[in-house]
Automatic annotation (TrEMBL), chains A, B:
One of its GO terms (cellular component) is peroxisome. The keyword Mitochondrion does not apply. The lineage of its organism: Eukaryota, Sar, Alveolata, Ciliophora, Postciliodesmatophora. Residues 276-438 form the Acyl-CoA oxidase C-alpha1 domain. Belongs to the acyl-CoA oxidase family. GO terms for biological process: fatty acid beta-oxidation using acyl-CoA oxidase; lipid homeostasis. Transmembrane segments: none annotated. It comes from Stentor coeruleus. One of its GO terms (molecular function) is FAD binding. Keywords: FAD, Fatty acid metabolism, Flavoprotein, Lipid metabolism, Oxidoreductase, Peroxisome. This is Acyl-coenzyme A oxidase. It is found in: Peroxisome. PANTHER family: ELECTRON TRANSPORT OXIDOREDUCTASE, PEROXISOMAL ACYL-COENZYME A OXIDASE 1. Its cofactor is FAD.
Length: 644, 644
């Protein structure tokens, strides 16, 4: 009811907004096709997960994931989905299950690192999933530091084979997705030894379980690493080798190989760029991946905030106030809504940059990857941390019910959580960003960062304008990075670079990256809105932009005053934002429903499209909760009363 | 090894520090007694939970909790623990299980609300736990707004009984701890109806399950509300009544009753203060409760950061660097360590205030509860949100392994998580705080907040000093609250109070509470350190104070510059903090191990006292993980390969 009314009263042009959104989410796929794929998926029972999965035990969860994965692969093959369509089909999968990991991570890694002969042999097996793979890099003792890996692949020229061995407990591969139960092959990164010399980490495709029986081979110790805060449906696994032999052909030889005389040979010294690019691509995926869980959390929280009423509304006696009508609730939700659009709008520019460079690399050129790498790290860091915070804000905005798995938000949170850690720990990536930015003071800056090393910015113009506000972010970024550079130059006369970046400038350096991120994302926000025709859609997004700015700028007020901005400016920006909240309010539901997320993808009772929250909550708990199968919990009376 | 060396090299006076800490954690209990209770608990197998509990299914988890609770109650009765000792014994319980909830929440609520005759009848049953109770206030439709509760208790004078009824789905009691399986009685808050008139929410003790068989009575629909992000071992439950009759004696009649002629009667109009005080007490408990999970998370993260090495240390060739030696890791952990001490030090002053007022109330006086209520709300809000953030920071500081339940940190997080919501949603409490603070402009401020309505503060003195820094927090608090007051006075001429606090000033008002919190907690920090004799302990804590200030002050730099502080001041404070990190580093382990948390209370492999992290992780997963019981997950091969 409440939802139906709100839908009617929106002033947005919904279809136009949806088109606009999806032009940014999936730039190659028309909206009709996106809708078609989602419809199809919603009709396949194994793919339409319901909230009932939240009752699963770990083992049930693993099984459900396999069933899901199986149906998923069947669908994408049957429908012959292309790369981007695959991403659409991946949206409403719940976690990175074995099949998905195989197709989206393992196979691309293999394609990248294997040579053509190897691919000719293995790709058909990957296609049928007779070969199920996983990417095994991290060990119990080393994650961030890949050079520190301990697992050994020792070449034996006599038998033309490698002996794989895990010399210590810390050498145990750990955390490897899909390894615990599902994979029968692992792309193992191991230290290559030839004649007693170590050549550093290299990739091997290692058969670990029998393709037919799935039994682990002798010399292979493999299993699941146990309970986690999320990712219950993924069998993150461990792997140890005890002098386990594999034929020479299993070394992945696109970049380097062992030649017929048994010597190490680098095939293409420039090819390292390709490897590097694949890392960049994995991180780009986190950005690509961010809008979906955040739009899910917001769909749930905004819908529920319209349905939920709390406290008598003395302005309309006899009624209760919808919680979305409280200013603080609006502030929480609309700040996060503005973040959602910000992260969405940045995708096209970054993707374009990536594809341009990828094209150059694959056509044999050798462009600089630095700026791309820097931006992608920046977005990996802030997309992961800021989206997490946003999901949690949505969860809290649902009050007590947000703590129930049935709300759908906790699992969005725990699934997204490891992104701050994997594909490059956020601290380590931030450090790479600031090191790069500091290096710009000694070479020509790319246009994206020219302002950092350029003339001092003193924000001018109308304080209400996006241009003034953009100058503010840039001024802060400039100030902070310049200060880091100044300190770096001072310290360099006395300390090694290593000492400086490990022990003296890490805190200041990492802190300087956040305004750089804001300056970039806010510019994309401006540019994207600019392209819209005038109208209510544009107005609504401009309101969100103002809300975004207000939520991120005040913490920099000191620096900005140092750059000549008056304190009252922040009060003005704050007032603009508060005013914008009331303008966004009537269109809040429209702004999030323009994403058209389906119930089948939300797995949430609070976020149901029909708004039937309370009935369904009660019915679900009555009929699905295994704890309620018996009237008295078996054994309970034996433990309830202390025997004293 | 690494831990042993660090322990040897600390410059702290450990025993003295421990005494100092526990004088703040448990002001009435000598350290020897605390150690004794912990020792005793560690020896009782059911109470010494191990990490193996993280493998439990929901049902196993409920059973383990009952076993735990049973042993716990047996112990506290056998040892005749007093009130504070009970809190010590409650530390290393994992969640608020049924037995603990019965003793720490239900029984005190009953004592508060029942009259003496009622208590004479029921207390013996509570003691033996023949009566197991829960506190049932929240409904599916109403939590924050207690007046909006729907469940009805209609008095029938003829039969001298109440008819309990849940007229709608939203009237279903929901979220009630220990109700789902364990409780046989519920302290139900229901709307009292007499002769068609509603008298508002009143408390009833309702028998819901048979004491002997534990079967729910006819007319009672009760069960568990299903999966949650944490609290797996608690049977949060739902409850509905279908015209269920209970005798009149079950209305709790300390504050009001129905007299012999069937009329409503208030017993003691002043007694509402007692009820109010009980709310305050529950919130105080969240503060009391905060240091333990945070010290647990920090024990785990600091120990692990000393054991964990990552990246070659080129300054000492052939070795790897301990992650605790990276500046950013220090910043993360030591900021949170400073927070831990801050929250610890504030307990004595707040407790003293509480006990003084409690004494006055129970001795018949009628002191003002306002200032206590305000401070307790403030601390409830910030103890819950800031400690949560701190626990999560510790988790991320452990890299990938922090995502494993076996690290012990995820369950600390999810158990603490609902505290932002229950015992008063944080937003609503913040609103009460700011309303109270604004009211001070029209009456005499209590000494704690006199500065807010007093003369304008312009921080002066040595910027390195605690006194200057305290003036800064006070200046910000003063500025922000005054601004809210100014806006409030302006708006009051045009709008109703309700409109102002719901729709116009909520955001600004709630934001103004944080600096008030900092000003108060930082003053306690200063006062507490002052009492220490000069020496390394005092020096270390003074370093932590500096780190605390730096971590919280920069966001206010704009306001402070507006109050006359120079921008360079913040750079100085930042530099002091960075310097303090390096001074704290050698004593980091000592500072947290002075809390003397036992392995039996940590439930963590990363945080083991013996530092045997990697072996134990591997062994545990090999031997305890049920998924590894079979070499091939049953049914796996049926689902692995898509059939196309
Ligand atoms: C759910 C999940 C799935 C995963 N899936 C896979 C997979 O499929 N395949 C795979 O190979 N791996 C996988 N991983 C592992 C993941 O890639 C690593 O956890 C990640 O690389 C971080 O490494 P680490 O855990 O060793 O952290 P560490 O490097 O040990 O970091 C611990 C702490 O030290 C800090 N630190 C470390 N070095 C520095 C430095 N130089 N300066 C400052 N601070 C520093 C970090 O910031 C962090 O706070 C997965 C992990 C998770 C949680
Ligand atoms: C783990 C857990 C255990 C619990 N145990 C118990 C128990 O044993 N017994 C019991 O009785 N209850 C229990 N509860 C319920 C708990 O007390 C309520 O969840 C809590 O009071 C919040 O109420 P709500 O859920 O109705 O949130 P709501 O009041 O619906 O809040 C939802 C959102 O609306 C916002 N909002 C509401 N009103 C306003 C306003 N006036 N101004 C601005 N914003 C507003 C809130 O800030 C929040 O963001 C438990 C809850 C949990 C999660």
């Amino acid at each position: 009811m409440a939802l139906v009314e709100e839908r009617k009263s929106t002033t947005l042009s919904m279809e136009e907004l949806t088109r606009f959104i999806y032009a940014h989410a999936y730039s190659e796929t028309p909206l009709e096709r996106i809708r078609e794929i989602r419809e199809k998926m919603a009709k396949i029972p194994e793919l339409s997960l319901t909230v009932n999965r939240y009752y699963d035990t770990r083992e049930q969860s693993l099984k459900r994931a396999l069933l899901f994965g199986n149906a998923w692969v069947t669908m994408i093959k049957k429908e012959k989905l292309n790369h981007e369509e695959l991403q659409i089909a991946y949206e409403n999968s719940f976690e990175l299950t074995a099949h998905i990991a195989h197709i989206t991570f393992f196979v691309p890694s293999l394609i990248l690192q294997a040579d053509n002969d190897q691919l000719r042999e293995w790709m058909p097996l990957c296609e049928t999933m007779e070969m199920v793979g996983c990417y095994a890099q991290t060990e119990l003792g080393h994650g961030s530091d890949v050079r520190g890996l301990e697992i050994q692949a020792t070449y034996d020229h006599l038998s033309k084979s490698f002996i794989l061995h895990s010399p210590t407990i810390t050498a145990t591969k750990w955390w490897i997705g899909a390894l615990g139960c599902a994979a029968n092959h692992a792309l193992v990164i191991a230290q290559l030894y030839i004649n007693g010399t170590c050549y550093g980490p290299h990739p091997f495709l290692v058969p670990i379980r029998d393709i037919k029986t799935h039994m682990p081979y002798d010399g292979v110790d493999v299993g699941d690493i146990g309970p986690k805060i999320g990712f219950h449906s993924n069998d993150n696994g461990f792997l140890r080798f005890n002098n386990y032999r594999i034929p020479k052909k299993y070394m992945l030889t696109r970049f380097s190989k062992i030649n017929d005389t048994g010597d190490y040979e680098i095939i293409d010294p420039n090819s390292i760029k390709i490897l590097y690019l694949s890392l960049v691509r994995a991180r780009l995926f986190i950005l690509a991946d961010a809008w979906f869980p955040l739009s899910s959390a917001l769909t749930i929280a905004i819908r529920y905030s319209i349905i939920r009423k709390q406290f008598a509304d003395n302005e309309k006696p006899g009624t209760e106030k919808k919680i979305i009508d409280y200013q603080i609730q609006q502030n929480k939700l609309f700040v996060m809504l503005s973040r959602l659009f910000a992260f969405l709008f940045v995708r096209v520019p970054i993707n374009n940059m990536y594809f341009k460079i990828e094209k150059e690399v694959t056509s044999g050129k050798s462009p600089s990857l630095d700026i791309l790498h820097c931006l992608v790290c920046l977005y990996k860091v802030y997309a992961s941390s800021k989206v997490l915070e946003a999901i949690e804000t949505c969860r809290r905005a649902c009050g007590g019910h947000g703590y129930s798995m049935l709300s759908g938000i906790p699992s969005l949170y725990t699934t997204f959580l490891p992104k701050v850690t994997y594909d490059g720990d956020n601290n380590i990536l931030s450090l790479q960003v600031i090191k790069y930015l500091v290096s710009l003071f000694h070479k020509k800056s790319p246009k994206e960062f020219a302002y950092i090393t350029g003339a001092k910015i003193t924000p001018t113009g109308d304080v209400h304008s996006s241009s003034f506000q953009q100058q503010c972010f840039m001024a802060v970024a400039q100030y902070k990075v310049n200060r880091v550079n100044k300190h770096f130059q001072e310290l360099k006369t006395r300390f090694t670079k290593e000492k400086i970046w490990n022990s003296l400038l890490q805190v200041e350096g990492i802190e300087a990256t956040e305004p750089v991120f804001h300056a970039h994302i806010h510019q994309c926000f401006i540019d994207t809105i600019d392209k819209l025709p005038n109208g209510t859609n544009k107005d609504a997004l401009e309101c969100l932009r103002k809300i975004y700015v207000a939520s991120e700028i005040e913490k920099y007020s000191g620096i900005l005053m140092n750059c000549g901005v008056k304190y009252e400016t922040f009060e003005t920006i704050q007032q603009d934002s508060v005013h914008a909240l009331s303008l966004v309010r009537p269109n809040a539901l429209g702004l999030i429903e323009a994403f058209e997320l389906k119930d089948e993808a939300l797995h949430s009772i609070l976020g149901r499209k029909d708004g039937d929250v309370y009935n369904q909550m009660f019915q679900n708990v009555k009929t699905q909760n295994p704890i309620n199968k018996t009237k008295v919990l078996p054994g309970l009376l034996d433990y309830l009363r202390p025997k004293i």
